[in-house]
Amino acid sequence: PSRRAARQLVRHGHFLVNGRKVDIPSYLLKPGDVVSVREKSKKLDIIHEMLKKRGRVKELPWLQLNKAHLEGKLLAIPSREEIPVTFDESLIVEFYSR
Q: pLDDT tens digits for 21-63?
């Protein structure tokens, strides 16, 4: 889904961090944190659609995925260079510096 849709899924409490429900999209993860889909949310169509579309996700060195259990573990905080950026950061900085 889009970032907006992903934020809404978090806000509606469909995800757990270390087994506890999290509904704050800006929640900061720490290395070692495990993010999983809540048991009752695993049946949602949007979750299954996302898995179909993202079936061939590139492996990231700082993230360990377990697709069978719909969970991932943050192994380390990625550097800026390791994050796949789909926008021009300089344009955002320029916009807010006015």
A: 999 999 999 999 999 999 999 999 998 888 787 666 678 899 9
Helix (H, G, I), strand (E, B) or coil at 38: coil
Proportion of the chain in helix, strand, coil states, percent, rounded to 5: 35, 20, 45
Set out the domains of the chain in order of their start, with CATH numbers: 3-96 (3.10.290.10)
Residue 64 φ then ψ, to 5°: -110, 120
Nearest CA to 55 among 45, 43, 67? Answer: 67
Report phi then psi at 72, rounded to 5.
Answer: -145, 150
For residue 64, the tally of other CB atoms under 10 A from its CB is 13
Task: Supply the pTM of this predicted model.
Answer: 0.80
CA 98 to CA 89: how far, in whole Å? 15
Give the pLDDT score at 76: 97
